[in-house]
Amino acid sequence: MRRGLIGSHPKEDEVVSWLAKGYGGKEVAYILNISENSVKTHIMNASHRRKAKNRIHLILLYLEETGKLNNHAVRNPQEIEAYRELPQSIQAPEC
Fold first, then answer.
1. Which domains does the chain have, with CATH numbers?
2. Is the pLDDT of residue 2 over 50?
3. Most exposed: 22, 49, 53, 74, by fewest CB within 10 Å?
């Protein structure tokens, strides 16, 4: 079995890649022919492994890891670093 990025399960990366394309949990479940609970579990596990604070943060980390995050994809890359420095009480709730 192929290992995913940062030791994650390949299915986790597949789920996160669909989220990064803008699909929601229900849509990802349908596309991958898995249950919504499985999608949530993969998101939770991927978030935990990457220490992501929420889905947006998870997607940004995934895009950075895969090299898909560049100056063309994000208007202001400094916003990503600024987000990481926000107090946890201001950031969006975890997945």
1. 8-85 (1.10.10.10)
2. no
3. 22
Kindly report, residue by residue over 10-69, the tens digit of the pLDDT: 899 999 999 999 899 999 999 999 999 999 999 999 999 999 999 999 999 998 888 877
**CA 6, 43, 16 angle in degrees (round to 5)?**
65
**pLDDT classification of 72: cutoffs 50, 70, 90:** very low
Q: How far is CA 17 from CA 5, 69, 75, 88, in A?
A: 12, 12, 20, 25
**Cα–Cα–Cα angle for 67, 85, 71, rounded to 5 degrees:** 30
DSSP letters for 36-95: HHHHHHHHHHHHHHHT-SSHHHHHHHHHHHHT---TTTSS-THHHHHHHHS-TTTSPPP-
| CA-based R_g, the chain, Å | 13
**Token code pair at residue 59:** 């997607």
